[in-house]
Design brief:
Layout lengths: L2 E3 L1 H17 L20 H8 L16 H7 L2 E3 L1 H15 L4 H11 L11 E2 L1 H15 L17 E2 L2 E2 L2 H8 L4 H4 L7 H7 L3 E2 L1 H15 L4 H9 L14
Parallel strand pairs: 1-2, 3-6
Antiparallel strand pairs: 4-5
Helix pairs in contact: 1-2, 1-4, 1-6, 4-5, 6-7, 6-10, 6-11, 10-11
């Protein structure tokens, strides 16, 4: 029985692995030690599969697999074309000893060129939380969203350039500002739905919290800490959630 694994979910799980490496540098390096010698659940994608609840013991044949793509298949995942390209390219860079951010950046350069499927737009709370944490570190934890008005959702773009935390998140998820168009100024959850995205109930809760933090003027690092510890009680969780 295969479960479809789409682009947004896979991206979020990769970001979560990178965030964990940066938060715990002594326990989890941000590159794969001795990448040429491994054919198992080590490496960047090994952390993704561990986050999905897998161990080497329950993925038969993982030690003999010659690629992360093959290991996902052995673990029971059917990758969309975009997710497959993200896996292939990032895994190639991982096996060449690149740090995990470089692996991700390489995958992000190629994956959006592939055909999109509905599952690529399934958005869980894990992807939102991981994206916010990644962007807060990338832009600096003291970064704030400018020109906010309490009670109103911050605009995502200024002349198609991201100017808010979720504007940069949309950009990372591969959403084109031209597609957002006149929807900018609505709440992010409404924009996503109008663009055909499927945020889970838990993702909706986190997105609302992120924009509330932005509108209140919180630094992005504070926002990341808040949403990372948010007790989302909305059930049931979907496969794309934590």
């Amino acid at each position: 029985m295969f479960r479809k694994l789409g682009y947004a979910e896979l991206l979020g799980r990769l970001l979560a692995g990178i965030n964990d490496a940066n938060d715990n540098p002594g326990d989890q390096p941000n590159r794969t030690p001795d990448p040429a010698s491994r054919n198992d659940l080590h490496g960047l994608h090994g952390h993704v599969l561990a986050g999905l609840g897998h161990t080497e013991a329950d993925v038969a044949g993982a030690r003999r697999a010659d690629s992360a793509e093959r290991i996902y298949a052995l673990a029971g995942y059917d990758l969309t074309p975009r997710a497959r390209t993200l896996v292939q390219v990032s895994d190639e860079y991982d096996r060449n000893g690149q740090d995990w951010v470089a692996c991700l950046d390489a995958g992000l350069a190629f994956a959006p060129m592939r055909r999109e499927e509905p599952e690529d737009r399934h958005l869980g709370d894990l992807t939102v939380v991981a994206t916010v944490g990644y962007l807060a570190r990338l832009h600096g934890p003291d970064t704030r969203t400018a020109s906010v008005y309490l009670g109103d959702p911050p605009r995502l773009y200024d002349e198609d350039t991201p100017v808010s935390l979720l504007g940069f998140a949309f950009d990372l998820w591969g959403i084109n500002p031209a597609d957002v168009g006149d929807f900018d100024g609505l709440w992010a959850t409404e924009i996503l739905r109008r663009l055909g995205w499927k945020p889970s109930a838990r993702a909706v809760s986190v997105l609302i919290s992120v924009q509330a933090c932005e509108a209140s003027g919180h630094p992005w690092g504070v926002t990341a800490r808040i949403v990372a510890t948010l007790n989302v009680s909305t059930d049931p969780a979907t496969g794309a959630d934590r």
